[in-house]
Amino acid sequence: MRTTIANVYKHVNETVTIGAWLHNKRSSGKIAFLQLRDGSGFIQAVVAKAAVSEEVFEQSKNITQETSLYVTGKVVEDSRSPLGFELQVSDVEVIQEALDYPITPKEHGTEFLMDHRHLWLRSKKQHAIMKVRNEIIRSTYEFFNEEGFVKVDPPILTGASAEGTTELFHTKYFDEDAYLSQSGQLYLEAAAMALGRVFSFGPTFRAEKSKTRRHLIEFWMIEPEMAFMDHDESLQLQEEYVAYVVQSVLKNCKIELETLERDTTQLEKIKAPFPRITYTDAINYLNEQGYDDIKWGDDFGAPHETAIAEAYDKPVFITHFPVEIKSFYMKPDPDNPDVALCADLIAPEGYGEIIGGSERIDDYELMAKRYNEHELDGPAYEWYLQLRQYGSVPHSGFGLGLERTVAWITGIEHIRETIPFPRLLNRLYP
Amino acid sequence: MRTTIANVYKHVNETVTIGAWLHNKRSSGKIAFLQLRDGSGFIQAVVAKAAVSEEVFEQSKNITQETSLYVTGKVVEDSRSPLGFELQVSDVEVIQEALDYPITPKEHGTEFLMDHRHLWLRSKKQHAIMKVRNEIIRSTYEFFNEEGFVKVDPPILTGASAEGTTELFHTKYFDEDAYLSQSGQLYLEAAAMALGRVFSFGPTFRAEKSKTRRHLIEFWMIEPEMAFMDHDESLQLQEEYVAYVVQSVLKNCKIELETLERDTTQLEKIKAPFPRITYTDAINYLNEQGYDDIKWGDDFGAPHETAIAEAYDKPVFITHFPVEIKSFYMKPDPDNPDVALCADLIAPEGYGEIIGGSERIDDYELMAKRYNEHELDGPAYEWYLQLRQYGSVPHSGFGLGLERTVAWITGIEHIRETIPFPRLLNRLYP
Ligand SMILES: [Mg+2]
Ligand SMILES: [Mg+2]
């Protein structure tokens, strides 16, 4: 019976065959312990000299790291292993012997590991991160499908950008100039007017020469956009969504969080509602805490975000930023038009901003005024303005950065490990 | 009580308020029928002169197309409508009056509609197509999650391509040259060696100057890749996947398929297993049918694919293509190395190829030979070759084109209507 490591629990005391790779091994005189991995999980296979042919036992002691195998054995319970089972081996068949696998259990430098990313992904920690990333994606779809959202895929290639082209990748689109999208939001607003509630999940690109542990050149965003939803309702949706994802990971990635040595008590606290603080109060708080490098009208840097986050044990919404430092399409607060009906969601534990969102301007005259101020002329922008002409409605939306969310939930230091093949300044390989 | 059209069934005989747009209307002396849409669905709202104020009745008779509204009324069953309910209106509040909405119920030319794609999406047919697209995506995630696959996002920006750069979009990646991905497959093979079973769902790009009803410049692909899976097992997975998606759409998109006037009897037949015909038999069949423009060694054109598909009422796998006309990484058939362990899946009713897949070469020596033949030298290709060095295993994968699948299942003529904002030759707007 062929099965996978994740499914051995269905075959207790049965003999199964698993296609796998040798992750690690140790042996003493009459017994060899093979740590196997098959992508679905990790399991210990015990080869007792008495239980196999002499040839299989000798071979087992000498299997090299990452050699591919078919291993046959009986599934038995083992309360000491995270999986809860081990394999009592009756046969081992080598598929292909791996010689001199470059990533050994010893320490390697970051550049070396990044150059070998195609192999590094096989390590226990990277495997766990990718499984958590997958669970975040899976639960995102589940959440938005259950809330009646329609997945909409906005275009990646666009003819113009409302927010400048300096940080955009350029390409020739036959005879025209095109840019890689930084956000699908404008398109998602059009789609929300057709489909009510929509969300995208796709790659975005920022040609930014920054080299911090929070930045990727190519990263994935989840961008929901909701017709007939105001700012407050959007914040509620955001906190429910983030809490849903965190609780899904806690429930479905127990082994992976253990592998990552993640402090899950921090994650268990992540339930709606989340605290809210206005931008103005946040500035005052920072000044009181001794940060004299920031004043009303400035945007937060990473240290400021961390200082604010430290005051809470949940993600915190910073709301009502000055209109001047936010995007042109954000709706001014009717009670105080100097600030916008917007919020950034700052993750706990120093992971920074994971969501930016706002209610959108729905008034045609005000949007036309913004067009003038930002010199958004020409036909490339006409269609977006038209959304305020033909049945404009209150609407809100937000964007969640997948990789920053993975970094936070897995508790890892650097965002480069949160995506299978990171694109960084000076890194386009593998 | 605020609700959406999709949720009125939960509020029968209750009074609800719906945020919506006027899709269409007709009125006689004492009654106005408002066709409302809110993205979640379409509903008829009946405004009886006797049931509302004189002001609301007069206003209702004069509401213009695509005006945004809050409509309050009682939900009553109505067996004549596809939804099964209508609204007996007690109040109507106009949010924003739409004047001279450009897309009227009369006929418009394709270029006009494409120029107004941001508004055209609101039409009943386009709305239905997007909902079916969403259900295909939703059920795809459901299927692969249930089968133990991990979603992996391969990079879009890549430094080199194993299959030439003439049909790739180019960009400068700081000081390097980069290209937009046509397929994540090579990366997915690396990921499958780490995670066992993986799938991607993302945009791909082809800078091809073709202008057929089957081609988009930017399109979305689902690419599963499976370690320890041979060609035959992959075909079984493919037919189960496609059948699952079709049956999910039939179950969850009844109203939309009715709107699209789709012949659902054709879709009900789509259950595993699917027929298989070898490339060689397909060539013979075509020659027998009088196609003298194709011989062994040629690739199929659209008319050939259609002719083959017409012999079946399910999708058909054409298997074992000549190695020469397929990709360098496809595994030759051990029984006949002139042909590959590969298959294209051809949709019924003339919709053409929706899947291409194969078992991959897992032998290092053979892959090294292919590298020589295809002049894949330099470090950019080294990592992919290494996968055959460090624990190579039998593995297979395939790619399904989302938009062609949407076209087939919705039964629409042209692929440009299957994606929210199509990118075509000479079309980068809106
Ligand atoms: Mg910020
Ligand atoms: Mg083909």
TrEMBL record, chains A, B:
Subcellular location as annotated: Cytoplasm
Primary location: cytoplasm
Gene Ontology terms for molecular function: ligase activity
Gene from which the chain derives: asnS
Catalytic activity: tRNA(Asn) + L-asparagine + ATP = L-asparaginyl-tRNA(Asn) + AMP + diphosphate + H(+)
CDD domains, sorted: AsnRS_cyto_like_N (cd04323), AsxRS_core (cd00776)
Organism: Alkalibacillus silvisoli
Pfam families, alphabetized: tRNA-synt_2, tRNA_anti-codon
Protein name: Asparagine--tRNA ligase
Swiss-Prot/TrEMBL keywords: Aminoacyl-tRNA synthetase, ATP-binding, Cytoplasm, Ligase, Nucleotide-binding, Protein biosynthesis
Aminoacyl-transfer RNA synthetases class-II family profile domain mapped to chain residues: 130-430
